[in-house]
Amino acid sequence: MTGLKQHAIPPRSKVLVTGANGFIASHIINVLLELGYTVRGTVRTPTPWLDDYFADQWGSGRFESVLVPDFQQRNAFDECVQGVSGIIHVAQAMPSAPVVKDVDEAVAYTVKGSVNLLQAASAQTSVKRVVFTSSIVAAGYPKGPGFKLDVDSWDQSVSKRLKPPAERSAYRECKAQGEFQAWKWVEKNQPGFEFNTVLPWFTLGKVLHPNIGGSTMGYVTGLLQGNTQPFKFLPLPWFVDVVDTARLHTIALFCSSVKSERLFAAAGPFSWQEVIEILKQLQPGNISIPTTTSQEEPTIGEVVPASRALKLLNEYFGQISWTPLATSLERAIQKTVIR
Phi, psi at residue 318, to the nearest 5°? Predict the structure, then answer.
């Protein structure tokens, strides 16, 4: 890492990461361990394979997993936050049912889990920083060209300008309100820690372990098997590499100058046709890769805070640009060969 300066949380400190066995969270842990931190990661069910993976990569004693099966319990985080200097909350509680019948109930579920963590963190004087993983949908989801997102952009559900019930998205509203209500809680309660959030767009890249769910990467690996479900994503999103996203989380944790900020992880627009062309170049013998049939245009617009995020990546990790789409996809499928 470059740009070493006085850290708000110095290396060798212990950091709590929730949802440790997730796609983004596992990369955050990997970057933290690379930087010299020790990590405690929450999981909802036992995952000895995860402890083994990080022990093999970084040595024993650097990572430990702890069980937190239910974020809704008022004291769910009381024990796991003890003795940590910082927290990165990746696994915001989301309803597990595939179809959400009551969006308002789902939002309340998510917000309660977030508030439980914030309350537990505020009770520990050791906690200096808390970082939340949000989503670009919390800032709004552009539907056409010429959009502009800024640090003050929020999804319409935050301003209560809700759509008719049939058109509401539980995922979008949970993500938007999960972040928005966290900021409101911090503003009201003035805890003893700094609070930052990271808003990733469509995240691609390498999955660190076969037992880790690939999240958005699952759509890309599905293309290798002929699954055309990704083509139904409209409007077409922007992408970001998972390592870039993970690094931004660690910057939000340790960088003294990042205070009360929303960091936007957004590399640029893409089309599924671009993805298909790259995949066919990487696996020329794979006849299962489908061909797009629709006329598609990338979602062109401006994510103003992305320049701030890239500047931080350059300052602390020496990156002069976001990871390109082709590089991200190559890393992602290098061990996935389907014929």
Answer: 70, 20
Scanning the chain, the segments in alpha helix (DSSP H) are: 23-34, 48-58, 103-122, 170-189, 217-223, 242-254, 272-282, 306-317, 325-333
pTM: 0.94
For residue range 81-112, list pLDDT tens digits in order: 999 999 999 997 765 555 567 888 888 989 99
122 close to 51: Cβ distance less than 8 angstroms: no
| Residue 28 Cα distances to 116, 177, 190, 252, 301, angstroms | 22, 23, 26, 11, 28
Residues 49 and 211: beta-carbon distance below 8 Å? yes
Across 308-322, average pLDDT: 97
Which H or E run includes 150?
none
- Beta carbons of 90 and 133 less than 8 angstroms apart: yes
Per-residue H/E/C for 290-337: CCCCCCCCCCCEEECCHHHHHHHHHHHHCCCCCCCHHHHHHHHHCCCC
- For β-strands 147-149 and 301-303, DSSP reports them as parallel
Q: In order of start, what are the domains of the chain with their CATH numbers?
A: 14-215+239-269+301-322 (3.40.50.720)
* CA separation for the pair 109, 103 (Å, rounded): 10
DSSP 3-state of 101: coil
The H or E element spanning position 268 is strand 268-269
Output the CA angle 87-90-95, nearest 5 degrees.
130
Tally the residues of the chain: 339
